[in-house]
Amino acid sequence: MAAIEMKNIVKQYGDGFPAVNDVSIDVEDGEFLILVGPSGCGKSTLLRMIVGLEDITDGDMVIGGKKVNDLAPRDRNLSMVFQNYALYPHLTVYENIAFPLRLANKPDSEVDEKVREASKTLELDEHLERKPGNLSGGQRQRVAMGRAIVRDAEAFLFDEPLSNLDAKLRGQMRTEISRLQKRLGITTVYVTHDQTEAMTLGDRVAVLKRGVLQQHATPRELYENP
Ligand code: ADP
Ligand code: ADP
C-alpha cells in the first residue's frame, strides 16, 4: 500500500482553467517524491490538498489507506515544513521542538523523552537552550524537522524550503535534507521549481505543467528520456 495516493485529483478555482487537472500519483512508504514545474503549474495547490489546506474539487486523497478528503489538516497526521521554517523566535530550540506535543497536552515526561530523542537524531542536543535567532540556517532546518518528527507524522511535506537561500547554502541544505530524510526513512513530498533540486533530491520526480502530470519517473529515467 502506498503511503499517499492521489487519485484523479482536480482543483478548480472559479470557472477558469483547472489549477490541478486529473493528477494521479502514488507515493510509496519512505519515498522522497519531488513535485516540480514552472511557477503557476499547480505544485503548491496539490501540496496544500495533501495537507488539507485546500479543498479538493474532484478525486480522492488517500493517506495511510484512509480517504482524507474531508479531514481537517490536524487530523491527517502530516508535518508541513514551511519556507521560513515558522520557528518561534522567543522559544528555545527545546520548546520549538516540543511545541506540537505541548499543543496535544502530552505529559512532561513524554515531551522530554521525545525532544531528547529527536534532538539526538538531528544533532541538536547541544543547542537545546538556544533561540532560533542564534542558529545557522542548517540548524534551523533541523529544528523544523525536529518539530515534525516528534509527532511521528506519516509524512513530511516541504514547499520550496530553500528558495530564499543563496546558492551555496542551498547546496548544503539540500545535502542535509537528503541525509536526514534517508536516515529517518519518512515519506516526503517536496515542491520546487528548481530542476537541479528535483534531480538530486528525489527518488522519483513528478513533473507538472498547467496542472497536468507530464512525467512521473526516477531522475535517471528522466535523464535518459527527457
Ligand atoms: P505553483 O505552486 O506551481 O506556482 P499554484 O499551485 O500556486 O502553482 O497555482 C496554480 C494555479 O492556480 C495558478 O494559475 C494560480 O494563479 C492559481 N491559484 C492558486 N491559488 C489560487 C487561489 N487561492 N485562488 C485562485 N487561483 C489560485
Ligand atoms: P507560489 O508560486 O510561491 O505558490 P503564489 O504567488 O502562487 O505563490 O501564491 C501565493 C498565495 O496567493 C497562495 O496562498 C495562493 O493560494 C494565492 N494565490 C495565487 N494565485 C492566486 C489567484 N489567482 N487568486 C487568488 N489567490 C491566489
UniProtKB/TrEMBL annotation:
| Gene encoding the protein | ugpC
What are the TM regions of this chain, as residue ranges? none
Domain of life assignment: Bacteria
User: Keyword Repeat: yes or no?
Assistant: no
Describe the location of the ABC transporter domain by residue ranges.
Answer: 4-226
Record has Transport as a keyword: yes
The organism named in the record is: Nocardioides baculatus
What UniProt keywords are attached to this protein's entry?
ATP-binding, Cell membrane, Membrane, Nucleotide-binding, Translocase, Transport
Task: Cite the GO molecular-function annotations of the record.
Answer: ATP binding
Report the protein name in the record.
Sn-glycerol-3-phosphate ABC transporter ATP-binding protein UgpC
